[in-house]
Each structure stands twice: as C-alpha cells, then as structure tokens.
Design brief:
heterodimer, A: 224 residues, Arc Repressor Mutant, subunit A, Tetracycline Repressor, domain 2, 2 domains, B: 229 residues, mainly alpha, 9 helices, 0% strand, elongated
Amino acid sequence: MNRPPDVARPRASGRPRRRYAARLPVPARTEQLLDAALELVGESGFDAVRMQAVARRGGVTRPVVYECFGGRAELLAALIAREATHLRTVYAEMARAGDGEGPKGARRLPVQALATVLAAAARAPATWRLLYVALDTLPDGPRQELAAARAELTEVIRDRFAAYAAALGLPADLDAEVAVPLLRAMVDVAAQRVLLDPDRYPPERMTAALRAVLAALSPPVSRP
Amino acid sequence: MSDPEDGSPARRRLAPADRREALLDRALELVAESGAAAVTMQAVARAAGVARPVVYDFFADRAALLDALLAREETRALTDVLSVAPRALTGTDLGDSVTRALEAFLALVLRRPTTWRVLLSPSAALPTEVGTRIEQGREKIAGVIETSIRAVLGGRAAGLDTEVVALAVVAAGEAAARLVLTAPEQFPPARLTRFTSTLLGALPLQLGTPRQPGTARQPGTARQPGTAL
C-alpha cells in the first residue's frame, strides 16, 4: 500500500511527536491493518494477533486500530472473512479448469487446476498459509469459517476429479472416496513447497512434473 | 532411582535401558489416547507406575522426552519403510508395482498404528524441533522413493522431475495411511489397493515415451496441437 512519507507536523502541545503512519480513510486503514494482522499470523500464528501488535506492525497507535475494529475478535472475524473470500475466488477459478474445450480441455484439467492453486499461493502466500496454520487458538466463529473455507478446496477437487474421470472415460468404479483425499494431499504438498521455498519449487516446476506424469500415463482418448 | 517396592509388573525394577523404553512406551500410549499435550512428566510417571524423579533420571524435561519418543518412533517407521520400499517397487508392470508397494506400506502402518498416528498427526501440538524431525524423516523417505522411481523407470526417468514426483507419492502414501488409521472400517487396505489397481489398470502405461524435459508452459498459453497436456 502506498503511503505518503511521514511528515512531522507541528503540534500545539509541543511534545515530541510520535512517529506514525499518515492518516488514511478508515476503509483503507482497515485493509492495511488486516494486511498487518495477516503478516503476524504467517509469522507466529493467530495468537500473535493482538490489537497492540497489529498497531505496531501497521505503524499506528492502538486507538487507530480500535477505530477500525471493536476488538480482537472483530478484527479476526474481519480478517478471516476477507481471506476466505480470496480463497473462494481461487476455488471458483479452479472449478472452471478444463471447462468448455471438450475432451481435450478435460485432459488439461489437472494441470490447470493445480496451476490455479499454485499461482494463487505464489501471488498471495500469506493468504494461502491460512490453509496450513494451526487453528486451535482462533475464536470459534472465525475458526469455523476458516475450517469451512479449507474444506471447500476438497470439494472443488472432488468435483473436478469427477469431471476428469467422466471426460476421460476412467472406470466408473474408480473409488472417488479414496481418490479425493489422495489428490488433496498432493495439492497440499505442492502448495506447501511453493510457500516454503518458491525459488526451489516454483509453481511451474510442480505443474511441469504433473504434466509429464500425466503424459506418461496418458489414458486413451475419451470413450463416449 | 527410587522404585516403589511394589511387586506389580509395571513397578518392577528394570535395567535402565528397559526402563527408558518402558517410559517411552507409556508416553506413546498417552499420545495415542489424548494427543501430545497429554504427555507431561507427571502423566508418564503415573502411567509407568514410578515416581516423577525416575522420569527425570532419563529425560531432562518434557521436550526432551517428546523428542526422544519421536526419534524412536521415527527410526522404527523409517526402518520399516526402508525395508519395504526398494523391494516393493520392482518389476516391469508399474500398476502392479505401485499396488504391491501400497499394500506392503499399509501393512506396516497397521503393524504400528500408534507410531504412525503420532508421525502423521498434525504437528501443531508438538514442539518445533519435533516437527522438524518428522519433516527430515519425510525427506529421507522421499529420497528412497525417488531412487526407486529412477530404478523402475531407468532411462525413461530422464525427462521426469523425480524429486517432485516422489514428494507427491509420499503425500499420497501418507493420505492413504491416514484413511486406514482414522477410518479402518470404511477404508480397509484392500479398498485402497483396489483403487490403485483400478486406476493404473485403466491406463496403458506408456512409460517408454519420455517427454522432453523443460517444456513447462504457463496455463493459458498456446499449446502445440496434439499435445495431451
């Protein structure tokens, strides 16, 4: 976020002026403080998200944080609501993988779906870390919302697996209840590597590996 | 050491090495029953029927005890996997090899369910060093699997990023183990091996056609016609 440089203005009291960020309208400040809170989660978990810590990270005083959020619970709820929306936007894109190009499109589905997740993880690592951070210190409401948002990734995988299996004519008795958790685990490990060490494991490397494996295991063109 | 003079088996005077093992056994049971948070020096002492100082004779503190426990369990698990992986992943039929490897792996998971439950549980409740240790164990297993993949594929592995493939195989294997451990009735090992044989049986495994390496493309960019993916 672009902020104007911190310009010290004279004060009537004559006390040395505390350095803090330039004044922002409340909606912009809210966003900036949620960014600060998200950073704290990524570094030290939800426990680290305290009004004082968010103020310090955001370069403002505590009252400024209270102007935007009634308290810690409200801040965490706002954070999870915002981040869950970001996750769901990516899920929606992932749910379109392989659409509209017939059997050929379906063949590209797994790589497209994985690429969507990994591009999002690389673009917004702090958001994607929320899929893997411990939830136990989060208050009930946001915890349930984040748990639900995490679980929805599995549902997208379930849906795309069914589309892929149908388009490629994989055996109808292929056990989706087994396939889906295995696929989810593989998506997770790829995303975690991208988050952990993006230089060594860039998204393109992971998708290239999947593409090569699928090419080697290439099933016959779809049966009607 | 001050064992109570009670003659019950749990409180019998044990040689130090045996006592240490017994304490770790009790700690493992506690983790299995109630999670790592339940492992305190006091709880382990109580479960083992010894006084708390006896536990301190062997472990400086709770973290040291958990670390020793994880080290032991990880060694056991690793030894098991390493004894199975190279043998299982041989043969010419990939589908058959994968299914046999999975079968062997799930059998050894079920032989030490508590060990695997601990190693595969989300590591949030465990100290960071323990999480790091489990991560290192995972890397070792991934290394062995990578070697096996190279051995099975031979020259055809040239264009394949076997490191990444091995990571995916480890993740899938762990997910399979979790299913078998957490819902044993719903997911007997036979259900998982049936899945791999159905899946891989449906594919004409054209392992003889290596693709060119380094052809990664961004999604959405033009692809050559006729390229599968």
